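[audit] Reproducing an earlier prediction to check determinism. Same input, same settings, fresh worker. If the tokens differ from the archived copy the diff job will pick it up downstream; this log only records the rerun itself.
[audit] input (108 residues):
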Amino acid sequence: MIPIRDTPQGATFAVRVQPRARKNAIVGEIGDALKLALTAPPIEGRANEACIEFLAEFLKVPRSSVTIAAGQSSRNKVIRVRGLTSAQVEERLRRATGESGLTVHVSR
């Protein structure tokens, strides 16, 4: 289960990034985090930028709405999405990953 929390700044959830992958994709879950494969290398913030860009496109929000709240220099990150509630993030993740069997849990 991936917990998504509502905070005053927006919905937050954990991700684990696998840089230098073959393609950008959500590849599953690892613990309480969404596992992301990104083609960008973990050099000079490129993987962080790719993470933000990928999630913004995936969740259909402006790039400026997605930020890394924690874990700038780690594979484990906390993502914040401004302008969406946890229920809205959950719905967009479920809709986009409907066939992958991803389990999302909203906590408030």
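[audit] rerun output stored. Observation attached for the diff report: The longest strand covers residues 10-18.
[audit] end
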